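Contributing new complexes? Match this layout with flavin-adenine dinucleotide.
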Amino acid sequence: LGTAVREGAASVTQLDIYPLPEAERDEDVEPWPTYPKIYRLSAAHEEARDLGTAPAADADARLFAASTLRFTGDEAGHVRGLHLVEVDERRRPRPGTGRTLPADLVLLALGFSGPDRHDGLIDQLGLAVEPRGTIARGPDFETNVPGVYAAGDAARGQSLIVWAIAEGRAVAAAVDRRLTGAERLPTPIGPYDRPMTA
Ligand SMILES: Cc1cc2nc3c(=O)[nH]c(=O)nc-3n(C[C@H](O)[C@H](O)[C@H](O)COP(=O)(O)OP(=O)(O)OC[C@H]3O[C@@H](n4cnc5c(N)ncnc54)[C@H](O)[C@@H]3O)c2cc1C
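Output block (do not edit by hand):
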């Protein structure tokens, strides 16, 4: 968003499939120190707003609960419009909310939620996956297939290098335990540990 604004885009709209988050942490649902899903305004959003690049109706250039259904283009193969619909919290389209945004550039910045393909290793090994598409595993990092362990982003979802390293070490310890029965290697984290942030 920030780059598009600085490159002189006449108008930028950022689509988010999630609903508009609450302004404040819900202490019942996400008590401290859980990382809360709250409305956040980044410097790029402020910049878009201040430069008038955000469409007036969407003060910070974002449309929430917006699901893209299809693109339309011209005969030369350039995208010209994006057809979207408003969705409820279960991502079901709200009837009568479909509309088309004119667009001449669409950037997909969807983020990583799990392995993008299941038709290779995951299907061939018969690994169970979580609803988000990440590889499912038990408390010892072992998948539903005995002897097959999963660590890192493929199982945790989008994360950081430090988590991948810690999971790799924990899996090494689990495999060693399975093979030798000995408790020799460190297990820095468990598969369900999450960061503690304010
Ligand atoms: C753009 C971007 C920026 C990031 N910036 C940061 C950052 O600044 N700091 C930070 O901490 N983290 C950052 N991350 C996250 C970090 O890169 C990941 O969390 C980390 O690399 C996960 O490690 P991993 O070993 O689980 O997976 P990966 O590093 O993705 O390794 C998986 C490997 O498996 C290979 N592979 C896949 N399928 C098969 C197969 N069938 N057979 C054999 N090999 C296969 C892949 O080619 C890949 O090499 C960033 C990620 C992205 C995408």
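Reviewers usually confirm one structural detail per submission. For this one: Residues 2-102 form one domain.
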